[in-house]
Amino acid sequence: LWGAQQSKELMLQRRSIVSANRRPKSRSVPGFSMLEMVMVLIVIGILVMITVPKIARAMQHERVNRAAQVIVQDMQNGFALAGRQRAPVRLTFTTNLQKYVFSDRTSGVAIMTRILSTGADYSLTSLSTTATAVDVLPHGIGSTPFSITLANGDYNRTITVSSAGFVRLVQ
Predict the structure, then answer these.
(1) Model-level pTM?
(2) Buried b (16+ CB within 10 A) or exposed e, 35-46
């Protein structure tokens, strides 16, 4: 009886040693699992998909706003230019090329040209105006009041210019 019990205990010990050797050893390796990496990449992708359209829209608005501010300054300077030169100045809009030119009315020499089309600094998609040519006389009076509308995508701004040279950014 004594020998049978010892041999039974010895067999149980051998089994536990053999089964312990068969179990894979758990290693603690620093790093992330593939599943964790995929989850992080998915979250980053979702965040990028949310922010990119908002950033693009903000850039469109900024381009139009910046171009509108430049045009307001150019119009004010154009009216002052006629007084400084003591000669009439002609403002000519070329809407299909999205540009305008201040030139000496008598000689036709261009004094200043501003290009607002795609590929230029402002990359506007549309420039429209109510007048194609405006003469500014030396005493600061324009031949006609006009408005300029700038657009990039679905965002636009309008500038109004009175015949007295008052320039206003409307919307």
Answers:
(1) 0.71
(2) eeeeeeeeeeee
Instruction: Name residue, tokens 């050893």.
Output: 25
DSSP SS3 for 113: strand
Q: Rounded to whole angstroms, what are the CA distances from 76 to 69, 72, 153?
A: 11, 6, 27
Residue 89 has pLDDT above 90, yes or no: yes
In angstroms, the CA 62 to CA 148 distance is 17
Report H helices in the chain.
Answer: 2-22, 34-85
Handedness of CA 156, 162, 168, 171 (dihedral sign): negative
Question: How many other CB atoms are there within 10 angstroms of residue 63's CB atom?
Answer: 20
In Å, the largest CA–CA distance within the chain is 131
72, 159 contact by CB (below 8 A): yes
Please answer whether residues 92 and 128 qualify as being in contact, where contact means their C-beta atoms are separated by less than 8 angstroms. Answer: no
Band the pLDDT of 140: cuts 50, 70, 90: confident
Q: Decide if 146 contacts 134 (C-beta within 8 A).
A: yes
**Comparison of pLDDT for 3 and 33, the residue scoring more:** 33
